[in-house]
Amino acid sequence: MAGHSKWANIKRQKARVDAVKGKVFTKISREIIVAARSGVPDPNGNFQLRTAIEKAKAAGIPNDNIDRAIAKGAGKLGPDNAALEAIRYEGYGPGGVAVLIEALTDNRNRTAADLRVAFSKNGGNLGETGCVGWMFDQKGIVAVSLTPPTSGRGRKAEATPEITEEILLEAFLEGGAETYELVETEEGAIAEAITDPANLESLSQTLKDKNFPVTQVELRWIPNNTVEVSDPQQARSLLKLMDALEDLDDVQSSTANFEMTEELMVLSV
Question: How crowded is residue 240: how many other Cβ atoms within 10 Å of its Cβ?
Answer without folding.
Answer: 18
